[in-house]
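User: Show me a protein chain along with its predicted structure.
Assistant: Here is one chain, sequence first, then structure tokens.
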Amino acid sequence: MDKEWNLLLEKAKKNLSNQETTSFINTGNYSCALMTDKGNVYTGTNIYSTTIRLSAEQSAITAMLNNGEKRITRLLVINELEEIISPLVDTFLYLTELELDLNNILTINKKKEIRMIELIPDYYGTFRIAR
């Protein structure tokens, strides 16, 4: 694993808390760290309640967007056992709806780099992005 992956893994581990925030809200079972094309790292953790379902990935992506960035080069998600896992399918749809370049390479784990278009080859919004 290279030093960028080690950095993302360490940042993601720091976000894990796996706690019952209230009787109705659990947080920190999963954590995400992503790197942008500018080299900035954003992190997020999941929030689950009876009314909120926010994934760690959505949380990290929202932090990135709040800082005016939208080009992700690496994205890492870990579970409460600190194992690297695949992002949720909804995450890929979220990324495409952000109108990211579908030809961008997105590294989702330490072994594989994938172009966004390979993840969602028949993306329903392609014609909208082409406008």
